[in-house]
Amino acid sequence: MTFNLSWACVLVGCISASLAGAYNLSDEFPPLWKESPGQFSDYSVENGKYIINPWNYSERIGMYKILLAQTARYFEKFAPEDEQNILWGLPIHHGWQYHSGRLADPTLRTDCGHDSGDPLCISVDSWWADLNYYLSTIPFLAAIDSGLMGVSADNVILLPPSKDQTNFCYNVSSCHSSFPEAMKMWNKFYKCAMSPSSSFDDLLKYMWDAMFHPWSLLVRIFRVGKNKPNVILL
């Protein structure tokens, strides 16, 4: 697999290519990509429902892995080997967050995300992790809602963090209720992707709208009490 790194930069807030080079991209995948879940059956199952812990890096990056696999066929007309799938920007950026330590507990009150404790833990106290939650869960759940993933919308449940549970949504219905505009925009993106007549420019427009329209609301939600960077990079 190869991907156009410039698209990855554009679609995660114009992050420079040098930022992506902050970790070794020699194998062209985010950290732990190959070891992470690649299908729903790799997750826990309870009462016929898939249970995903998005506060574990491996399980969150696995959501991206499934999303990329299920959308690959819609980008084949633009380039071979999924290299023009613009969704690649999302896991690439999340992998950089993990590698750079931005998903760890910035307060140091817990060992979440730190090498000395649980390195795969994603801290709810991390501003980066909280905002990324919506760049992972909403695209993922909207894809399920759009019929792309081969599972029922009622059969996937995300686990809540240890606190601040009301800041997040955990399944298709709760995300529609809490963030209806974001879900609607991602649904439009997937509808465009599934259309045989869609152009690459069409997909870029719909994805840009889906990613950035809700962020003013999300930044307000997570602004208080978080370890915020001086410049907002999504």
TrEMBL record:
Gene Ontology CC terms, in alphabetical order: extracellular space
Signal peptide (from-to): 1-22
Keyword Cell wall biogenesis/degradation carried by entry: no
Pfam families: Leg1
InterPro entries documented for this protein: Leg1
Keyword terms of this UniProt record: Signal
Keyword Signal listed: yes
PANTHER family: LEG1, PROTEIN LEG1 HOMOLOG
The protein's name in its UniProt record: Protein LEG1 homolog
